[in-house]
Design a protein that fits this description.
Layout (H helix, E strand, L loop, with lengths): L7 H10 L7 H4 L7 E4 L2 E4 L5 E5 L4 E10 L3 E11 L5 E12 L25 E5 L2 E12 L3 H5 L8 H11 L6 E11 L5 E10 L17 H17 L1 E5 L3
Length: about 250
């Protein structure tokens, strides 16, 4: 849920006018259990999507976490990275299993959206086939910048998935703040209520800063498409996915 994917302004407006009690920790409990575990350097998932994710040998496991995201979805994060000598990362893989909670646990009546909440990535500009599955793909570049108070603050129910990622890295002594190129690859289940999201960050070297000027800049956008194509290829090269019943 790092990027806008549904009309949360509508949902949170509804929260204001609808009186309902918050689910207890006991009710959330089953959704905070890990669906994936690390086995011999591979991430093995027992739920959507069932299968394994492995990485190039110089990419190491960093940490994991489960939590309830914005009171509407279960979120499970696993981080893997190739580190540099300066305490940062050269490449980072952010694996996220996410799914909307059942209607009875949502902070608004479930019937407000027929069929339940769904993810929508139709605006993503690229499609990629990975292990014979379709992924929605988006690329970008931006400056990652979190303050010390954000990185060391108390965990809150309104914390974003990105902030949770930054805190995991910070706890491991890894600097998250840097210029990055990014690839987001998302696979949805049939009813679009669950997703596998793979985010790839690549540290943007100083000599490559000119790449920043290419994204969405008229004639330069064709050059950005070329940059994106190479970036997506690098993201796919460092990771191997195997799905059950493929």
């Amino acid at each position: 849920m790092t990027y806008p994917r549904c009309n949360f302004l509508l949902f949170f407006s509804i929260i204001v006018i609808v009186s309902c009690s918050n689910p207890s920790d006991k009710e959330y409990g089953p959704f905070l259990e890990f669906q994936a575990e690390l086995v011999n350097d591979s991430l093995i998932s027992s739920s959507f999507p069932e299968g394994s994710i492995s990485f190039e040998k110089n990419i190491q496991y960093i940490g994991s976490k489960t939590f309830i995201l914005y009171k509407v979805a279960r979120c499970e994060i696993h981080l893997f990275a190739e580190l540099d000598a300066q305490g940062g990362f050269e490449r980072l893989y952010w694996i996220q299993y996410e799914g909307y909670l059942p209607g009875k646990l949502l902070p608004f009546p479930a019937n407000l959206k027929p069929g339940g909440l769904t993810y929508d990535y139709n605006d993503d500009p690229y499609r990629e086939s990975i292990a014979d599955k379709e992924f929605y793909v988006k690329t970008g570049n931006f400056n990652v910048e979190f303050s010390d108070s954000e990185l060391n603050g108390k965990t809150g129910e309104d914390d974003s998935d990105f902030l949770n990622v930054a805190r995991i890295l910070n706890q491991k002594g890894i600097n998250i703040n840097s210029e990055v190129l990014s690839v987001r690859m998302v696979q949805l289940n049939e009813d679009k209520s669950d997703e596998l999201m793979i985010i790839y960050y690549e540290s943007l070297e100083e000599e490559d800063q000119k790449i920043k000027a290419l994204e969405g800049k008229g004639k330069a956008s064709s050059q950005w498409d070329s940059v994106s194509s190479d970036l997506i290829l690098r993201a796919k090269t460092g990771i191997h996915l195997t799905f059950k019943n493929n």
